[in-house]
């Protein structure tokens, strides 16, 4: 009958262990826009298609694609993020181990002397017994927390959600890294194109100076014309070091993203200076898909899940907990009898822990966890709304950048025609050199503005891709390991 009572008690405890206290996690509801505003009218149009997770390839630039391929292997922030995932995975396993049976062995030997004036003086010793003796002990201890109300299960759930949040944080790092790389690359190509434009205008200004000097020798031009031509050449040449400095800084910025030392990519990135073209069409998906793709939204959702599970942990702390424990081993005063049958000892039975008075600790802990959960809900809502705002802003910025580029291109063409006409009129003696200086300065400014506008359009598109949350997948291969 005794064994039947024990079995009944264990069976009842296992049934109770199916109870899990606290709220289950559900994604909060939020009103979702149907589509992203009206489709903009531009050369590179956006449409509600599936997001391109390798959007950098749409620029058709082999060098950029090569840099991104190396980024996934070499970026130090991604490697740090991977180690954080490993840390979170280990923490989850530690939490899960609390729900499994535990076993520990201990063995000891001690030579002891009992005090004749101590507690043992109240008992009458056996005749001939000594107060000095050897004591040998050998104990195997086992325990199993039955987790009646889900304290351990909720803890494991919270740690699993934290692992998911850490994974999402690494994906956010990957998205930021590839976006920064693409932005730096576009800016580098823009600076290099500005250098080419400036060098072309410097060469033209040098030709103009020789023309003016020849005309001065022939008595056609004046000292003023020579001074203006010389000043223009010097002014253009003075702008070149600044562009070269920007080029070097951008090359080093790309190198840092790839964990390369300064100037390591200098030869590679100076081999070409062509700005990549814009893709003809850009898929932007739907607002509803954004919450399932953007890493920061997924991280906020996982943090909310963890906070909800922690409420369950705090709730379960109000309820009893039962641990099955057992000890088995031997105890003897003689080493010769240490493993004999009479030396055996054992104990087995459940331990019931019931919270009676905690001085308000349990109530305060539950209130704290509920407040943290409400904060996580608000954080998730703010993150979602901010994600939608960033996409909408990026769509508008991309459309306006293309419109600005078209107008700047028209201005550059008109300034090119004006400079050509002014130069021809000066050669014919119909105007002074001041018109040549003014029209060439306007031409250089519009050509530089056109290059800057092209760079801004490309970097705005990169910002749009970043806001859409696609592109972190290139870094996922490093996550596959023996534990998965």
Automatic annotation (TrEMBL):
Its main location: membrane. It is found in: Cell membrane. It is a lipid-anchor. Keywords: Lipoprotein, Membrane, Palmitate, Signal, Transmembrane, Transmembrane beta strand. InterPro entries: MdtP/NodT-like (IPR010131), OMP_efflux (IPR003423). Residues 1-18 form the signal peptide. NCBIfam families: outer_NodT. Belongs to the outer membrane factor (OMF) (TC 1.B.17) family. PANTHER family: OUTER MEMBRANE CATION EFFLUX PROTEIN, OUTER MEMBRANE PROTEIN-RELATED. This is RND efflux system outer membrane lipoprotein. It comes from Gluconobacter frateurii NRIC 0228.
